[in-house]
DNA sequence: AGTAAAACCTAA
DNA sequence: TAAGTTAGGTTTTACT
């Protein structure tokens, strides 16, 4: 069967091979079996006749733990692993093929644990049928996924724009793209790129400003002004590049006039484009123009699937452009230049400050406006403005006007844009807010949440659902009593064990190898337990581990009360519902409801009658 | 009991 | 060519 499959591959002669986790599992497994069975021709999978496909397992011992990865050579064919694509392009709580297919396409397969495969094969027609269906589905779903997310189209575009092979887009980072573009532009301009020796890394340099938020619940419309592609546009406007930098000792070497040199807010010198146009600005112009095209197509597209594809393309190009800046600040990278990255962020800090001041000075009673505009928050390249307008139209009009006026203060292509109005707007903290997002005056586009629990993957879905529902009730329905009643009912349900366990599953990523952790973590402890129970399915670095917190003696730390949700179901283990109330639900609820409902919230939510009936449990773990 | 540090994830 | 960047909130563990 294996030989026939390999022959099938050779006859079909595909450019691209896909599957789910093929690089880490399927190919190594198949090649291993073929070797064990002494199959002569199986490993001839590539397009070069005499090159045999082998698995190279590379283990690098670094100061910061082990780095393990497998490399499989299949000449002339791209290994386009959908597991890698999905992890890169979608932010999900779980990346099992089953969950991914379900979330993205609404399709599921029956899971068959590997331990029963032999039994199914040795059973009867029915069990073999079950196995066959499972295998077919396993092969079919990755293809359907590829067809659905259309990542190949975007990746081919990205490969063309940045000049890297397709496979690099899956197996490598942003740096290769920047280097490839630099090489391309350097060659045609007649430069060599120096080889950079890795030196000692200094401290992080200073980044962007986050304005102190004036927290609270705003019933007035809040206009948002935002510099488009801030860092790339700074680099283009001021011609920041390796090739335009004047080191302090070079400033006087070239007989340059004052008007031919830019001094950045961080005190670095660069020549203007009139003297010599930088490479980085050229690269950025190309990336931004590709992004602009993608955005234009997105605007005209009506099909929701294609919209998502184009949005993905636009986003990937934006990250690549921002990574050109990031590359210059990457001290463990191929060509760091902190003069560039430090100048970029310094310009950014100056710009957000100036923007805030201009808005507040110009849109004031003193200048003839109805009220004093107030910048209530801003992050890096945006300001949230309370023009104190009572309606959307006025807020939008003032926002557009301000964006246009302030843009004129900056060099092209720097541009401040009016993006949207939040109405109402709940500002909880830096990087934490929610609001109804309006781009037009008739209906809100969506409820937008930043940083709060509804967009985070490290809490249980009960918290997500409750916070989401509360926000809807408050921001959309404006029903404060209904919100309180809903929260009380939910807490009562939780305490009486009426919440489904699937809503209580928390997932966290395994970010280090065991042994590199200095503090015990619930999901890490569970991962170790799972590895013991089922070594064949041991969680690996980068996997997300789902867990629930079960009952234990008082003061038992969470990492000792952690258990596999399936194990809990199978063994009827009691869940620690008060953990979910006290450690998962209560604080997020107070943060959301506090600004809207006032100080009374805590007593209403956490100490009302609805908290009195609790289901008693008997079995316990821990001390 | 109070606080520093670790860990995670997100905004930009 | 191994690895874009910094800022920041929140929860949990470890330590005093
Ligand atoms: N992954 C990211 C995102 C952002 N930034 C930096 C560079 C950006 O210029 C700035 C502002 O980020 P935004 O998310 O607001 O995005 P842009 O301004 O780049 O693009 P847009 O045109 O969508 O506003 O923050 C970054 O370095 N890396």
Automatic annotation (TrEMBL):
Gene Ontology CC terms: delta DNA polymerase complex
SMART domains: POLBc
Record key words, sorted: DNA replication, DNA-binding, DNA-directed DNA polymerase, Exonuclease, Hydrolase, Metal-binding, Nuclease, Nucleotidyltransferase, Nucleus, Transferase
This enzyme's EC code(s): 2.7.7.7
GO MF terms held by the record: 3'-5'-DNA exonuclease activity; DNA binding; DNA-directed DNA polymerase activity; metal ion binding; nucleotide binding
Cross-referenced Gene3D superfamilies: DNA polymerase family B, C-terminal domain (1.10.132.60), Helix hairpin bin (1.10.287.690), Palm domain of DNA polymerase (3.90.1600.10), Ribonuclease H-like superfamily/Ribonuclease H (3.30.420.10)
Transmembrane helix is among the record's keywords: no
Any one Gene Ontology BP term: nucleotide-excision repair, DNA gap filling
Domain of life: Eukaryota
CDD domains: POLBc_delta
InterPro entries referenced in this protein's UniProt entry, alphabetically: DNA-dir_DNA_pol_B, DNA-dir_DNA_pol_B_CS, DNA-dir_DNA_pol_B_exonuc, DNA-dir_DNA_pol_B_multi_dom, DNA/RNA_pol_sf, DNA_pol_B_thumb, DNA_pol_palm_dom_sf, DNA_pol_type-B
Localization, UniProt: Nucleus
Chief subcellular location: nucleus
Short name of any one Pfam family annotated for the protein: DNA_pol_B_exo1
Catalysed reactions, semicolon-separated: DNA(n) + a 2'-deoxyribonucleoside 5'-triphosphate = DNA(n+1) + diphosphate
Limits of the DNA-directed DNA polymerase family B exonuclease domain: 1-100
Record domain DNA-directed DNA polymerase family B multifunctional: where: 164-595
PANTHER family hit by this protein: DNA POLYMERASE CATALYTIC SUBUNIT, DNA POLYMERASE DELTA CATALYTIC SUBUNIT
Family (UniProt): Belongs to the DNA polymerase type-B family.
Designated name of the protein: DNA polymerase
Organism classification: Eukaryota, Metazoa, Ecdysozoa, Arthropoda, Hexapoda
